[in-house]
């Protein structure tokens, strides 16, 4: 018994014995219109979010000493600036929780890719630690907290495909076809701020509504022209992909996507472009992997 107790207290925390592991999935912006600008410079959007079954994984264990420690560094991001750490501290502060956390990240989503990796990591941290710490905040409260860190975080917290307005936080859930997507990853990381501050960005697309958007057979992203102007890698990737599928930018890029009726057809194109362009194939999801995993946890 003594031996076991000693082992338990001296074994360093590791992701292999983490108390909770959860996915942080990617999103696509199936269309993105910029319809105006707020006084603080943030852009008013109309966008259709769908999740992908393609995800980072986060591992969490609670700590008694209140410290938040992310054991996996993200290239170019200081520990305390990482959205995972910032989200954990925000929840800790707002819920007056005395517990801390050890956190590990298995990174799969490209950074600066427009598929929301950082935002999704933050959302999974809010939802995951709320579960582990039993802080019992509602999803609405967690989404409001997330919005203070980034415009894309609420949709990941809520976990439902949605038509979004405002800066991306006014969400109406939608049921979309769950197509297979080929997602190309051009070899550039794009700063969202750089694209949103470009003078040439279209900012006056006429307002539409969810019914019109869902009826339209072709969609567009207002950020695409500016991204193509700054990044020849993205423009060339689009030209290549458009030989096979109607391809479009997600978010502020750099990733591009095209829809397919099944996995095989998407994989064939992925294979055909593989020497020129990195890509992955993933299924669209109206309920995010995070929320499907939580549902399974609560059932078992
Ligand atoms: C492009 C999208 O990914 C579409 O889903 C999002 O609008 C971006 O969301 P995000 O990465 O969470 O963005 P934030 O971290 O909140 O903001 C990054 C920068 O993008 C600009 N920004 C962001 C969202 C928005 N609706 N208008 C903006 O002008 C702001 O200059 C901000 O400084
Ligand atoms: N855990 C994290 N993972 C990735 N990036 C992070 C993380 N924490 C902070 N960041 C910062 O956030 C920036 C945006 O990263 P992210 O990969 O989410 O971009 P993105 O996919 O273009 O996001 P979005 O579509 O939400 O604009 C990165 O350049 C990085 O500096």
TrEMBL record:
The active site is at 27, 152. It comes from the Bacteria. The keyword Kinase applies. It is an enzyme of class 2 (transferase). Keywords: ATP-binding, Isoprene biosynthesis, Kinase, Nucleotide-binding, Transferase. Belongs to the GHMP kinase family. IspE subfamily. Catalyzes the phosphorylation of the position 2 hydroxy group of 4-diphosphocytidyl-2C-methyl-D-erythritol. This is 4-diphosphocytidyl-2-C-methyl-D-erythritol kinase. It comes from Denitrificimonas halotolerans. The gene is ispE.
